[in-house]
Amino acid sequence: MSEIKLKDKIFELFISDNEINDIISQMANNINDAVLKNPLFIAVLNGSFLFASDIMRKINLENAEISFIKLASYLGTESTGEVKELIGINHDISGRNIVVLEDIIDTGNTLEQIVSLLKSQNVNQIKIATLLFKPKAYTKNIDIDYIGKEIPNDFVVGYGLDYDQIGRNLAHIYKLKK
Ligand code: IMP
Ligand code: MG
Description:
The protein has 178 residues and is an alpha/beta fold. Helix content is 20%, strand content 35%.
């Protein structure tokens, strides 16, 4: 199907499942070439659940591990304002070689928070892998080591990405029709 309707919006086919598969194979090759020792892949939920499961099947680094995290916000009890917390990592990750798996990096706000929370746990090395990247929206200086595909500032859904929580299960990636 080249067009789909999700709630009130029409989306058109943008990146097919075949192309996604090729992109991920290429990314996995590049990560495998980096020869990280006992890497800990950290997939950022919910968006990266399909990306993580597909790329991990193509990773052949020895002693690779995977964990899943979620960035949760809560209101601090004493301080005012939003506090961000990583949930999902309950073991010691100090000294580890981390590969963060993201579905999409837009402004980079989420990435910045994840990187600073990981750094506070004294990891050895942090590599960033994202399936999609919006260079025109990115406002941070953090290097992104592995980029699947650069895309314009269009809103996309499918393959983990949601529009108001729906569309994550779609096999292809669609963009909002203008
Ligand atoms: P950032 O913090 O601005 O980089 O945005 C990251 C988060 O915003 C992603 O993890 C997604 O959840 C969401 N996001 C950004 N762009 C899109 C999009 O085009 N479609 C769906 N979600 C998006
Ligand atoms: Mg996300």
